């Protein structure tokens, strides 16, 4: 009985350890450094654009998505510079009518798609 308990416990602990590793990787993809790296190398066409009307008034239900965290000025400039560095992505965004200087955030979903938030 003791042996069965030990094996069960070891299996449970290893599952938790592996779950933590994959979660940590997914959390890093939207850090300023992670999203900048993604934007510099992104070659896909799976992206959408969301307008953010007012970062400051989060109580206003018409102010845009609440899931997009506000980035610092430096992080916004880093996102814009990363898009500029990826000429293919910059061209595709331009074709969608997106002025790169209006991009205030970008997030990558677990499926690899991107969402750009513009003001």
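-> sequence recovered:
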């Amino acid at each position: 009985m003791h042996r069965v308990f030990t094996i069960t416990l070891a299996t449970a602990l290893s599952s938790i350890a592996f779950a933590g590793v994959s979660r940590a990787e997914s959390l890093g993809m939207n850090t300023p450094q992670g999203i900048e790296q993604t934007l510099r190398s992104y070659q896909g066409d799976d992206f959408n654009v969301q307008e953010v009307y007012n970062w400051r008034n989060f109580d206003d239900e018409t102010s845009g998505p609440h899931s997009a965290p506000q980035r610092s000025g430096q992080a916004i400039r880093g996102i814009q510079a990363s898009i500029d560095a990826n000429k293919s992505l910059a061209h595709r965004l331009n074709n969608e009518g997106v002025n790169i200087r209006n991009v205030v955030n970008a997030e990558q979903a677990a499926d690899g798609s991107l969402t750009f938030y513009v003001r």
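The chain is about 50% helix and 15% strand.
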